[in-house]
Amino acid sequence: MPRKGRSRRMVFPEGWLLLVNSYLAEKGQRCFTYRGLRTWLFRKQEYRDIEWHTVERSIRKLAEHGYLDRVELESGDLLFCINTNAKKLLRTILESTYGNEVFR
To answer: What pTM value is reported for the model?
Structure first.
């Protein structure tokens, strides 16, 4: 159990990919912006204790490690899109958690 006043730690990259995947699945999207993810996170009770700076840093780290494609829009906003590397890792995570029968 986390100590009072401290946020729980999310495992990289698995925990962060699951978070992003939850957001994208709920929204029915393949890509997201910082603003959209931030709004969604602050509405979810289970993620309220996560520092936004940590989320931003982890999203950038996912892109650096090749799990998200980073696209800069003409407006200057950043768009992050889940790619095949992330989908493969997510499938492995979900199969190990729920078993192969979920994906048949």
So the answer is: 0.82
